[in-house]
């Protein structure tokens, strides 16, 4: 984690005048960015993500929905954040709008329709199709008359100058909605925003993103674009990377320290793009609720998500133990909860701790000792499947014991691969003893409860995550 961000969730705070008091404490915790969910005028459902007017504002947050009045208040807030050396990122929603958006009347041709009716997005949930009927999907293809069947495109991973990255010039644009989005982004840059979190980015053509990102960076070379890419395929994530996104979302919060999927995903992305990790966000359950009140697991997830990716982000209330997930439809100040506990100092110390250790702050390679051991045992099983061999049975016994292993272990390497740290997680609710000699542990440099003098074993508290420096000759995997 080189950079840290705080998701200021507007419904919890209400009018923009209430946001100011939070900026100082956000800055005090060490955050450099504030990310704000959509603040545009919502449609009939009231969802923040169902925009009715892109140039009018949500009356829940401003003195008036009128553009001039709301934007004056918005500029003042952004100016205040800048005075505290905090940058502001806004949500950009261009995959869909509310069905009662003014554009559905003024430019129905900008939308996907079937038999004249607006089409709504949706998703499969346990084999059932869930449709968001308040939303209408934009037709963002460069050629709006192109058939819905997406053309399969080969991605040349080695050549940045391939046709997928070719610059699209104005005279090549067939869809006028591209100009609309381009103007909207420039307008927000002029308001003072310095970053965009792009909702459902993988559902928008990458050619459009490249056009928008390239133009925005000509307007402000330091602007950042963050792709909300959770749930999409790795192929779609690659397309977003090649479109020019500075950050893509990481699935770090869901890793159980055991599955290969995360290591593969992390390794592929880190070589090409920066990643943002988070312990929870406005779309997920609160951690304290997900973990049934277990504060130790909450702190473990906070720490892990902070040490794996380039940027770390938390959501309003995470630091105070809020139990209810954010409500993007009809949420209000009444949802702001009493403080269950205060992790503000813990978060401040995490940010400081990580930034002082280059291996933790950078996205170097991750190698799971447990995954590598599984692979080795699987290989041995195949080799000795039809033969009786002592080593086979010995290793099978090891595998059985490994299932009961209370620890998950992985190395995190420096960017040049010349140095590494051992990270160990106690996945149980009991204190455990870790064999220091087995893993060549030399120093305990853990965030909390670091042991100054390593003996043969290291005591690990329930759900504790520890970080160790190793003897130079240690190569366990």
Structural class by secondary-structure content? alpha/beta
Q: How are strands sequenced across the largest beta sheet?
A: 1-2-5-12-13-14-15-16
Quickly give the CATH architecture of the largest domain: Alpha-Beta Barrel
> Biggest β-sheet: count, sense, barrel?
8 strands, parallel, barrel
CATH class bucket of the largest domain: Alpha Beta
Question: Which topology of the largest domain does CATH recognise?
Answer: TIM Barrel
- Domain module tally: 2
- Fraction of residues in H or I helices: 25-40%
- Alpha-carbon distance between the termini? 25 Å
Low-confidence stretches: 149-163, 397-402
The total of helices stands at: 14
* Overall geometric form: globular
Under CATH, the homologous superfamily of the largest domain reads Glycosidases
Strand content: 15-25%
Number of DSSP E strands? 23
Radius of gyration: 25 Å
Mean pLDDT: 91
GO molecular function: hydrolase activity
Keywords: Hydrolase
Protein name: Alpha-amylase family glycosyl hydrolase
Region (Disordered): 141-164
């Amino acid at each position: 984690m080189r950079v840290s961000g705080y998701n200021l969730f507007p419904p919890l705070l209400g009018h923009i005048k209430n946001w100011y008091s939070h900026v100082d404490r956000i800055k005090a915790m060490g955050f450099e960015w504030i990310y704000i969910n959509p603040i545009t005028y919502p449609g009939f459902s009231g969802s923040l993500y169902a925009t009715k007017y892109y140039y009018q504002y949500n009356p829940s947050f401003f003195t008036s929905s009128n553009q001039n009045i709301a934007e004056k208040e918005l500029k003042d807030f952004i100016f205040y954040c800048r005075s505290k050396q905090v940058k502001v990122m806004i949500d950009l929603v261009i995959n869909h709008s509310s069905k009662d958006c003014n554009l559905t009347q003024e430019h129905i041709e900008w939308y996907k329709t079937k038999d004249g009716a607006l089409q709504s997005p949706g998703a499969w949930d346990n084999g059932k199709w869930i449709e968001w009927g308040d939303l209408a999907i934009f037709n963002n293809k460069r050629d709006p008359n192109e058939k819905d069947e997406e053309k399969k495109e080969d991605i040349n991973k080695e050549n940045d100058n391939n046709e997928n990255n070719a610059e699209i010039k104005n005279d090549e644009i067939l869809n006028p909605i591209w100009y609309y989005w381009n103007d909207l982004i420039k307008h927000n840059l002029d308001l003072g925003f310095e970053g965009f979190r792009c909702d459902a980015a993988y559902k928008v053509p990458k050619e459009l993103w490249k056009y928008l990102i390239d133009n925005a960076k000509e307007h402000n070379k330091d602007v950042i674009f963050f792709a909300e890419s959770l749930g999409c395929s790795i192929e779609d994530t690659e397309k977003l990377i090649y479109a020019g996104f500075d950050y893509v979302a990481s699935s770090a919060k869901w890793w159980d320290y055991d599955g290969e999927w995360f290591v593969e995903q992390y390794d592929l992305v880190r070589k090409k793009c920066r990643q943002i990790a988070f312990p929870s966000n406005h779309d997920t359950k609160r951690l304290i609720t997900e973990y049934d009140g277990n504060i130790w697991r909450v702190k473990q997830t906070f720490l892990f998500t902070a040490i794996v990716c380039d940027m770390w982000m938390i959501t309003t209330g995470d630091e105070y133990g809020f139990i209810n997930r954010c409500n993007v439809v009809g949420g209000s100040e009444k949802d702001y909860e009493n403080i269950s506990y205060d992790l503000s100092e813990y978060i401040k110390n995490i940010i400081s701790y990580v930034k002082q250790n280059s291996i933790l702050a950078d996205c170097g390679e991750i190698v799971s000792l447990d995954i590598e051991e599984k692979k080795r045992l699987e290989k041995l099983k195949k080799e000795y499947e039809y033969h009786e061999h002592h080593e086979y049975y010995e290793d099978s016994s090891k595998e059985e014991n490994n299932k009961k292993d209370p620890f998950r272990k992985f190395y995190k390497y420096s960017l040049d691969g010349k140095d590494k740290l051992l990270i160990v997680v106690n996945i149980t609710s009991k204190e455990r003893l870790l064999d220091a000699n087995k893993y060549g542990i030399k120093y305990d440099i853990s965030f909390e409860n670091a042991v100054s003098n390593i003996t043969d074993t290291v005591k690990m508290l329930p759900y504790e995550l520890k970080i160790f420096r190793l003897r130079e000759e240690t190569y366990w995997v």
